[in-house]
Amino acid sequence: MKVAVVGANGRIGRHLIKLLDDSEQFNPNAIVRKEDQARSFKEEGIAASLVDLEASVEQISEGLRGADAVVFTAGSGGATDSDKTLLVDLDGAVKTMEAAKQVDIKRFIIVSALQAHHRENWNESLLPYYAAKHYADKELERSGLTYTIIRPGGLLNENGTGKVSAAENLSRGSIPREDVAKAIYASLTEEHTYNRGFDLISGTKPIEEAIKEI
């Protein structure tokens, strides 16, 4: 299975690319926005495509062409203003969904945020970000794609433990980015996650077991 990872140069994306590249089941295509990022992946023997999420749907579709699945883990980043959050985390995500449909990709996984599906639980200091995630997720649910929405808690730059809690609704918590990548990897062909969304934080169950019990 060829997997296009949108936001491959991000911290979750890089963990996921390594998992995919090390596997016998998947072949990653790193979807990035800068030439030097693409060059870096290619030097590692990993396919890479240049895609600007603020470009047209047609241009995005060319970067995705040939893939069997898309993982959207891109984001505007914490240093940008709300306009970039809307253009990347919301409109960029929706255009990627439209692009996937244009080139007949059915499988789509998006990285959202803990409790993004419940407005009353949004982080007050990150309201534009949560709004973008909420409506991107809604559009994915309506898209007709075979989707999975993964809503991780606070993201940590720590080594993963391989153990999580996964459920439709979880209270606040955090999780290493490495474990989010492992959950994405485990969800790609796990039919129990098809057309479902779930919160994800560190816990006590092995990742594959946790997502099968959602």
Task: Describe the model.
InterPro entries: NAD(P)-bd_dom, NAD(P)-bd_dom_sf. There is one protein chain. The protein has 214 residues and is of the alpha/beta class. It is built from 7 helices and 11 strands. It has a 9-stranded mixed beta sheet with strand order 3-2-1-4-5-6-10-8-11, sandwiched between helices. A two-stranded parallel ribbon has the order 7-9. The radius of gyration is 16 Å and the shape is globular.
List SSEs in N-to-C order.
EHEHEHEHEHEEEEHEEH
Largest sheet: 9 strands, mixed
Low-confidence stretches at least 5 residues in length (pLDDT < 50)? none
Could you tell me the number of beta strands?
Answer: 11
- What is the count of helical runs? 7
> Beta-strand percentage?
15-25%
Cα-based radius of gyration, to the nearest Å: 16 Å
Q: What distance separates the N and C termini?
A: 24 Å
Helix percentage: 25-40%
Domain NAD(P)-binding: 7-190
InterPro entries: NAD(P)-bd_dom, NAD(P)-bd_dom_sf
Protein name: SDR family oxidoreductase
